[in-house]
Specification:
Order of helices and strands: HHHHHHHHHHHHH
Strand content: under 5%
Helix content: 55-70%
Oligomer: single chain
Low-confidence stretches: 1-8, 228-233, 330-336
Distance between the termini: 43 Å
Number of helices: 13
Shape: elongated
Radius of gyration: 28 Å
Length: 336
Amino acid sequence: MADYGPGAPHGPDMSGQHPPLKDVTGEMSQNEQAIFNYLLKPDDIYTPDGRYWADLGIVERAKFVLSVDAKESKRELANTGRMIKNDPLSPIPWYFRNMVLPGAGLGLEGYVLFSIGNLKPLFQKAFPACWNDFTICSETWTQAVDYLEVIGIIVGQVLVGVLGDWLGRRWGLIQDATIMFLGLVMLVAAWGVTENGWVICYVWSLFIYGIGVGGEYPMTATSGMENAVGSGKVSTREDRMHRGRKVTSAFLMQGWGQFFNQVILILLLLIFHHGSGNDPYSKVAAQWTYRISFAIPAVGTLWLVYYRTYKMKAASKQLLAAKKKAKVTGQYNILT
């Protein structure tokens, strides 16, 4: 082991032959030193000679990082091979458990937010007087579709910052899913006495949904980081090597949401447009297509509300530990 200077005091010198600041690491056996190295100087962040990876030169640091990554990739490939050998379908539930569930909210909001741009050309074809020529609808309100949801996202990020820190991550996650579900119900049921009234209702429904989406971004990232393996304890190799991948994988669910939105819109349009995807599109076909396309993620978001309410009891464990350490008491600890 590296010489760090005088050791910590480890008992009085009763015999005159036992200096209390003596470095005892040299008296350890090889197995004892291996145990201490495993705990104090893990090989994924320390070199064999005891140097921390961030203290290395640029060239040495690059070699060290590439070596550790190659070793970890080899280990993961071996584990994946064993999983497939034992059960060929086992990687699928592993992916759902570690990637899909943590990013389910982002996948659902990706589906909905990207559908706004996908639906606009359909509305312009089915309702040209409202969405194209603006003879019966306000151009301002039809354009508000593009930015009012962004304003809702900003409001949601501010709102969830307060709730997530004061009451706990779990309540922030529940709030996000509940508001997104409310927004989807409003989108499905949006209507008005006139087409312009329908557009106004549609735009404000997107604003409400955007509030839930705005909270989903920080809550998913924060809970993913705080609830990583070893969080609140001694950092583990799994945590250090794959924490970033877990957060990134959750956000990648947005891509899956966009993909499924396009597939579902195409299928619904074929169903309600008599098997054809070519225009002209009837108003009835457009209305059924867009409403059912929003009703599908509403079911998934309702399940998300249930899952976060009853199956994510430990979502605030790290925040609670921090409050306990800081000796914070009162209603916030109770609610967390």
